[in-house]
Amino acid sequence: MSKTIFITGATSGFGEATARRFIADGWQVIGTGRRMDRLAKLNAEFGVKFQPACFDITDEGEMLTALAGLPPEFSEIDVLVNNAGLALGTAAAPQTKLSDWKQMIDTNVTGLVTLTHHLLEGLIARRGVIVNLSSVAAHWPYPGGNVYGGTKAFLRQFSLGLRSDLHGKGVRVTSIEPGLCESEFTLVRTGGDQEAYDRLYKGANALQPEDIANTIHWVATQPAHININSLEVMPVSQSWAGFQVHKDL
Ligand code: 8X3
Question: Which of 10, 28, 30, 68 could be disulfide-bonded to 15 (CB atoms 3.0-4.6 Å)?
Fold first, then answer.
């Protein structure tokens, strides 16, 4: 019987690429997202291999209804990929909207831990794998990263903490920390600014969603005695620029 992977935010970017990667390897996928039209397209393309679960990760009621509605053949989840998440804006803290900060926390942190809590018992029973999509922003602060970076640092530490709590249970947990990657993520972050998107990626040879999908596949298919704790992945074109020093002259 095929193994089952549950991927949040499967309607685009890392999530969609991960769904494609695992289906190509014979897995069956439960893909979540808010946009039913996109989930339906994947379902039309992959048939019984792709089970849509349409819900907004910030709405626990919708989440529970979708989980309860999963067909029995998708009820035993081997791998959970917590991919759904977003960055809103690149402005410095004083220029940001509090509503954006709250939305990032609600999605990247509260939604993610809520879903993980609901699926945890089954993942323990199956000695499953949990892959959390953090970011290089978890380690490396940059101007405009503020709450986004904070949520991703939470996610990294949550992953490591889960490992401690699940000690001896055979469950594996990984924090994946991608750098610059070309995906819809940046259109969301810039409020749909296509010019900003083109400027950022032109000539940058950024990571592609398929690169991260391959990384997730590698992590999740290691022998059962190996846990990849955290994995930071950048394009070669991206590195660090050092500290800034303000001078009162
Ligand atoms: C975002 C990574 O490098 O685009 O998670 O800030 S980066």
Answer: 10
